[in-house]
Design a protein that fits this description.
Helix content of chain A: 25-40%
CATH topology of chain A: TIM Barrel
Oligomer: homodimer
Largest interface: A-B, 36 and 36 residues
CATH class of chain A: Alpha Beta
Strand content of chain A: 15-25%
CATH superfamily of chain A: Aldolase class I
Number of strands of chain A: 9
Structural class of chain A: alpha/beta
Order of helices and strands of chain A: EEEHEHEEHEHEHEH
CATH architecture of chain A: Alpha-Beta Barrel
Radius of gyration of chain A: 17 Å
Number of domains of chain A: 1
Chain lengths: 242, 242
């Protein structure tokens, strides 16, 4: 069977992972096009709102590996699959296997609305169900199923919830309580995507991170958690491709 | 046998871990007094330079647990042992066991110059050998022994090297190459401990972090690493006890 092409919007790196369980990791990014969600504050809305539809390239897994090497040279050993929602693409299994064959580890970011069998081959998997402020509804049955399968497969995975307000934090606590044994990351949301001056963005991001720390520190139901900023926005602001 | 007292300088929290493998983790801190090192840029020099010798309290493990509860209430499930060098204190085993008995996880930060049998009961252990800019000499034989024992004991541990300059980065690469299977964190050093205005400190810390990212991204011998700032200094500057 011929390889099924993968819709790709960005390939870049090496850079530093800014989020969750992989924060700080030296990595390359492959950003796929298409999403089943429409989060109100999505920082990659160009993957689904049509604004970048002319930039979508349909690439074979082998071509993606070639392009990663062309850009990253020999200076990478880790690739992050992000979107959009890469979990819409059954054909990503081929890419993961090719990367593993080269000794490269693979991380995935997805909201946990869809399962793919290749989840069981991901080295570091982040499930980030979306809180009320996103405007999305969580499919708890789908999420239960994914968490259950990942546990069974004994994969290194975590939950991450972005929080913009108190309602979001309640949602985070609910997710954490539902999956108590799973590593949990609370992340301060960036509600200021229009700010192009990163020096002006930083005090706002700091304030939001302190807000979240303060809230989490006081709650006994959020003791076994990590609280993190979106580190790359502190360094590079709202710039794309870094 | 009566409990041997533990020399303590600070007990505080809950707060957020700012470094390495535990970055973002909600934790309490217990800072012990005394160190076998005298790093030129130590951010906790009061633990060994005599300036806080009147603040050292000799506490039983049970009293430390009591104080943690008095300060943190029921809002913690994680304690970080830091110093100074806690590895100088054989009596910390008692504290670790008491915390575990309460369902509390324990992390340790140490330079890796001394072994203690209780290392095998630490949940998240960070070994941070010191680079040339510290003015210290690494005892490679001691470090080899500690890494070997932790591997044998199948403990969750990592190496962390703080880097201030190119020589430090060479040292980091040497440490990483010596222990290739061990999770490795490179951290940008804070050479501006005298700055009391955190708004003025932040641009400097950002610049140092970007410097380190830039260097690490280019090196093929530093592909499987994490690059992190000292997150708490971005939020709280050089303040103590947060």
């Amino acid at each position: 069977m011929a390889e099924r092409a993968i819709p790709v919007l960005e390939i870049f790196g090496p850079t530093v992972q800014g989020e969750g369980m992989v924060i700080g990791r030296k990595t390359m990014f492959v950003r796929t096009a298409g999403c089943d969600y429409r989060c109100s504050w999505c920082d990659s809305a160009f993957t689904w709102d049509g604004s970048a539809k002319d930039d979508v390239r349909l690439l074979a897994a082998s071509d993606i590996v070639k392009e990663l090497k062309a850009i990253g040279g020999d200076s990478f050993a880790h690739v992050t699959l992000s979107g959009g929602n890469p979990a819409l693409l059954p054909q990503l299994g081929e890419l993961i296997d090719r990367l593993h064959a080269e000794g490269v580890e693979v991380a995935l970011e997805t909201q946990g609305s869809r399962w793919q069998p290749w989840f069981e081959r991901i080295d570091e998997l982040t499930l980030s169900p979306k809180p009320p402020s996103s405007g999305m509804e969580t499919d708890w049955e789908a999420l239960d199923g994914i968490v259950g399968r990942l546990k069974e497969a004994d994969r290194r995975f975590s939950l991450k919830v972005v929080a913009f307000d108190d309602l979001d934090l309640e949602y985070a606590a609910r997710v954490h309580a539902r999956y108590p044994g799973v590593a949990f990351y609370a992340q301060a949301g960036n509600g200021n995507l229009g700010e192009t001056d990163s020096a002006r963005l930083l005090p706002y991001l700091l304030e939001r991170y302190e807000w979240l720390i303060d809230k989490v520190m006081k709650r006994a139901d959020l003791n076994r958690v990590h609280v993190l900023p979106q580190l790359h926005t502190w360094v590079w602001g709202n710039k794309k491709g870094v």
